[in-house]
Amino acid sequence: xxxxxCPNLYVDSLHHIQLSHLKDxxxxxxxxxxxxxxTMWGSKEITPMTLKWLEDAKAHGFxxxxxxxxxxxxxxxxxxxxxxPSAKGFKPFTSAFRSALxxxxxxPQETAIIGDQIFTDILGGNRAxxxxxxxxxxxxxxxxxxxxxxxxxxxxLRRLACRGLLNREDxxxxxxxK
Length: 178
Ligand SMILES: [Mg+2]
Known about the structure:
By secondary structure, the protein is an alpha/beta fold. The chain has one domain (2-162): Rossmann fold. Helix content is 39%, strand content 12%. The chain has helices at 19-24, 48-59, 72-82, 94-104, 118-128, 144-162; strands at 9-11, 29-32, 63-66, 111-115, 131-135. The chain has a five-stranded parallel sheet with strand order 1-5-4-2-3, with helices on one face. Helix 5 links the parallel strand 4 and strand 5. Helix 4 (94-104) packs across helix 5. The longest helix has 19 residues, at 144-162. Magnesium ion is lined by residues 33, 35-37, 115-117.
């Protein structure tokens, strides 16, 4: 069970993810969580740095989509702002990730999920066979249920680190030599 909670890569933020690394390991599609991954929870402001990273990803030929558990109206607004389509479904259910893969037209092995939550983004992504990337949440503002889950996340991260599964820079279980 613990391995299903372990991200393949664990970085500070989107900006610490090398697009060339994703290309090197055969990634063609990227699924993005919204809240606290590309924008702060409850905010519609996208920083110029984040915007540039997303534009670079598109320019490098990656197929991209959003997958969020937030309200449809909020997801639609962000989707419109970023000009990135959104997949339907609720994480961590595998059906949500299947919907994203179908939107992107990529296989699980060719697809990465980037998100800030272990029990939704990472667990769901690992179960669906995607390359999972955990980022640090952009802010501490979030749903009350998420705040509760953060305590559990800390315990999981500690256990993963103790077992040598979690490398802060590179917890690449698919490519352990990288
Ligand atoms: Mg999030």
